[in-house]
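Q: Convert this sequence to structure tokens.
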Amino acid sequence: MQKTNIKQATIIIMISIFASRLLGVLRDTVMASLFGANDATDAYRLAFQIPDLVFYLLSVGSLSAAFIPIFSEYYQKDKKESWDFFASINFLLAIFSFIIIAILWFCSDLLMDYLAPGKSIEIRNNAASMSRILLPAQFAFIIGSVLSGTLYVRSIFHIPAITGIAYNLFIIISAIGGNFLFDAGINSMCWGALFGAYIGAVLIPVLYMLKLEKHPWMNMQLNHPGIKRFALLALPVLLSLSLTNLLGIITQIFVSYYDSGVNTAVDLANKLIQAPMAVIGQASGMAAFPVLANLINEKRMNEFVDQVRRSTLMILLLSILVASLFGILRKEIVVLLFQYGKFTAGDAERIQDLLVFYSLQIVPCSLLPFITRVFYASQNTVLPTILNTITTVLFVFLGYMVVYSGLSYQYMPICSFVCTALLCVALYIIFSKKYLQNIQYAGLGLLFMKLIAFYAYSTLIGVIINKFLGDIVLVQEHFSALIKICIVSSISVLNFMVFLHVFGFSDVNAKLKSLIKRV
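A:
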């Protein structure tokens, strides 16, 4: 196997994920400009509830997490055995996912009554109709997760990352072409998502894999010993109530009780923070996972612990910086990205208010993909499953209290922040007790205080600069927003480097400089 360290893999994935997320933001900009924020866009967002439910039921990301350690182990020992295991899993998932998707396709109208209870029958029916277009795309994502897993094990990271790029690109092209050429409305975006899923998640990986080596693609060898091991790892996750999988679905259910356009506003605000969370957290987790799995398989535990410690600190510092910037520049970000065409200033203000709270969620949600994969790498899915279930139940309870107490929908991101933060803390404490013989609680407390000081320092500097620029930048609104974002972000990054040096994070500072040079 090629030796690719976490830093190199992270760079590759961060760049590709950044490109994908950039297209994702452009996709949302196109949607907002063409269709605004209303009942039609609410229906479009709610249409993803049922496909997201498939994603949750089969825990696509977790299937990959269960597949990679086993495939990696076989691949190092016996390549033929590894591909037999791959072919068996592929066949099993293809049959299982086809059955579930078919059932949900026929039950879309009934399910939408429960997934969008606060909306009118017309909106629910419209959402169910679009769900039927989107549902077959989940088959591509499920099979694609296993295809990507084989590439990750062979240290090939750029091909799986194309999935998101192709997916978003086809949605954008379909939205513009379908609206102007065929007057297809927002349904055109659903067709773009369907074609983009199959091209990005299946066609491109398959074509690339055909060039590498010959191997079976599907077989009915369901007695393969790897199947049982896969089931033992995957089933706890499949049967759990995963906070990360259900967060968006549950939130959309609760906010369906509010005014027209609220589902759209919540979705757009959430997607804005998904971009940096993916670049920081998802990239680190995806890149680290096969490397950490190999370190454990080779019994190099000191290196394993050191990689986890360094990556955790890096993720925390970067995510705090980004969270601070999103809170400060929320108005400029929303104006620059969404306030065009049919998307009004009132629609933009809704998202700005939500970003005050959603920005806080960037920190725990950036760390969660990484710290969860630390457990998956050691083939331990039970503890994350139990904690995920507990925090998800807590989130449902808090969301219920928000809606039925008559509180604003703006409290929903606060609920999700509390639950994800608790989940991250619990996972890291368990990791520390297992792999660190002597936990230095005083040192952890000092680190926590430094992180709080860093957030306060970054926010204060950013607010002062933004306030100063607000009085002197007198240009067209979108251009003004762009200038302020660039200036405030640049100065904040420089202050970030100074803070790392002054407060004893010189090793992180050096690694960041090295990362920037490599990029």
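The chain has a mean pLDDT of 81.
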